[in-house]
Amino acid sequence: MNSFPATERSLRDRWRLTLSLLVRICRKYRVRLEPPSWHSRATILQDKNSAVLALEAKEMAEGGIVWLHYGRRTWQISEIYLILYVHIGRDISVFCPALGSGILFSYPQLAALTGVQGVIVYAISSAAPLMIFAVLGPIIRNKCPEGFILTEWTRQRYGIVTAMFLSFFTLVTMFLYMVAELSAMQQIVGALTGMDGLPAIIVQAVVTTIYTSLGGFKISFITDNIQAVMVFFLVAVATITIGVKTNVDRSLVESSGLLNATLLGWQLLYILPVAVLTNDFFLSNFWIRTFASRTDKDLFIGVSCASAIVLVILTLVGVTGLLAVWTGALAPGEDGSIAFFLLLETLPSWVVGIVLVMTVTLSTAAFDSFQSAMVSTASNDLFRNKLNIWVIRAGIVALIFPVVVIALKAPSILQIYLISDLVSASIIPVLVIGLSDRFYWWRGFEVVIGGLGGILTVFIFGTIYFGNALDGAKLILLEGGLYANDWSVFGAFVAAPFGGLLWGFGALVVRLGFQWLIAKIKGQRFDSLDKPDYLTRPRIVDANEYTDSGDITAADEAEVITSHPKGKFF
Q1: C-alpha torsion angle, residues 496, 501, 503, 505 (rounded to 10)
Q2: Which domains does the chain have, with CATH numbers?
Q3: Residue 161 CB-density burial (10 A; 0-12 exposed, 13-18 middle, 19+ buried)
Q4: pLDDT digits over 74-88, tens only?
Q5: What dihedral angle (degrees, nearest 10) is formed by the CA atoms of 549, 555, 556, 559?
Q6: pLDDT at residue 414 above 80?
Q7: Model pTM above 0.85
């Protein structure tokens, strides 16, 4: 390359100064400095609560090239943009992706089965776990300031293999949620109009795919806000009209037994907190908003408000299952999943029309959130943004076909949720052990073996409990649903987390034994239980917590520190 003239060299110097100032601003106000080529990160914070400052740096050559070192990437400042995100405000729409149209089936269904006890337990179990993001969010953000979803921390703590393992099951979870949303949509259209729901879910899938491909996460944030408004209106309209128009038969209140405690109701005191709490970890939508919060205080306030709102909404939705029984709309022994819609049939047609529009909007907003999250997870976690984003989107489009097919055959929305809950209950306990520095010796090998072992333990428990392997395998898919009048489901949710932990510690013993044997054979010192470098020296300013001294590179021109933390799998 030829040297640039003095005027262009002065341009180079001005950009060096600009970079230095930007980095100092980033350090002072704790904001992120990123290039837009990272699609999944460059669009995430571009919602109405973000201010975006874009500076274009061009025409750099030999003697004038500035290298920007940040995270695990090195960028040459040549025809790229530096984007400084300053996230302001509080976003309580964090709860919206959890309130898709599926709640109109699962909560009334559980209420019709377990009564008041089930309504209260399910609502609290769904709302309270959101507070985990206010508790663990600041810890993970401090340990992994470069991240924006849980898998980024997993990569830096446990290594690439574990991150890929978690990403796969994250995608599986979102796939199941998409199936549940389309299945709910099909049943809503059928229940309220009597028409075939297949055309409706095809239109929904096509429309959401088009606008999420064009707008990315930015449009998803907009629809989340619309979704929040629709939830409030839906609850308000349904509550008022049901309260005015329905007549409760007092004789059915006592005879239904829904005011009494049940065995399943007591089991839910354990099942639902474990299921919902662990499954929330797999929802990238929540982690994106957690990392996007400006301060820990904002995060706490936002999540607290969201939890309170979710508690009220889900309680009101669940009560419709009770009212459906007490008004005679739902006969004893009838499928409780349509309790909400059987109750709607007793209301004026204009109310049914409004509810239909709102639920379709609700379902669409939830569905596009999962689509966008899948694109982001696949692009960033699986391919590290090295694969063209349109190839990723094409893959998600292809995935829509099996989603539609499975949604048409899905027997129960609640069962779909519980399958994903069982998977998360197996994996998350062995994963979060690494958040504590006391368990510095816990590595990715234990997480993977423990997670898979938790699922295997469910099969083993089911085989022993039912006396045959086929029913044991069916227990993993919870084919009996949550309504089995036995201890099988309860046992499955005990076996998953505790079995996973047992397998994880077993894997730890195997790994340490193998490493000790190798050290003996080679005549080397056994150092697998030595504290890592990041625990024995002061933390490097602006570097990831898991960064060792050998992982640091400094760029004098831009005064930026590069950290390359290498999580250990084995």
Answers
A1: 180
A2: 6-87 (no CATH), 92-416 (1.20.1730.10), 441-530 (no CATH)
A3: middle
A4: 333 332 233 333 232
A5: -90
A6: no
A7: no
